[in-house]
Amino acid sequence: MAVMAFDSFEALAIHLRAASRATTPALQKAVQDAVTLVADSARESIGMSAGIEGAASGLKGIVGTNDPMALGQEIGMPGTPPSPFMGPAGALNEMQIQCLLLDAVVGALVSRRNAR
C-alpha cells in the first residue's frame, strides 16, 4: 500500500475535506448493505421470508417487523420463553458490517487521493 504524502497541512486539509464529501455516499451504501445483510439473516434464522423489513436513511439503518408472532418470538409470551432473532442477526453479522463500513471509508479516501 502506498504511503500518502502531502506537501503541506493545507494540502492534507483539502484532501480530507474532499474525502469527507466522497465518504458520505459510500457510507450510505454500506449502511444500506448492512441493513439488507441483517434483515436477510433475521429472515433466515426465523424461517420467515416476509414481515421482516429493513430501511436506511442517511447513515442510520433499522431492521424490524410488524408481525405480532415475530414479536412474541423475540420477547416471549406467557408460557413461551423468548427466542430472539433480531439482536442475534445483528451480532452475527457485526464483523461483516464493520468491514462494509471500513471498506467504504478507506475506498473513498484512497479513490480521492488517486483522483488528484
Please provide a written account of the structure.
There is one protein chain. It contains four helices and two strands; from the N terminus they run αββααα. With 116 residues, it is mostly helical. It has one domain. A two-stranded antiparallel ribbon has the order 1-2. A hairpin with a 2-residue loop joins strand 1 (52-57) and strand 2. Helix 1 crosses helix 3 (86-92) and helix 1 (9-46) runs antiparallel to helix 4. The longest helix is centred in the first third of the chain and has 38 residues, at 9-46. The chain starts with 8 loop residues before the first helix and ends with a helix.
Short précis:
The chain has four helices and two strands. It has helices at 9-46, 68-75, 86-92, 94-115, and strands at residues 52-57, 60-65.
Quickly list its features.
single chain; two-stranded antiparallel ribbon; 4 helices; 65% helix; elongated
Blueprint of the fold:
Blueprint: H1 9-46, E1 52-57, E2 60-65, H2 68-75, H3 86-92, H4 94-115
Antiparallel strand pairs: 1-2
Helix pairs in contact: 1-3, 1-4
How many helical elements?
4
Radius of gyration: 20 Å
Largest sheet: 2 strands, antiparallel
Strand line-up across the major sheet: 1-2
Overall geometric form: elongated
Number of domains: 1
Q: Bin the helical content.
A: 55-70%
Task: Write the element-wise H/E pattern from the N-terminal end onward.
Answer: HEEHHH
End-to-end gap: 17 Å
The chain-level mean pLDDT equals 87
Secondary-structure content class: mainly alpha
Q: Note poorly predicted spans.
A: none
The count of β-strands is: 2
Strand % is: 5-15%
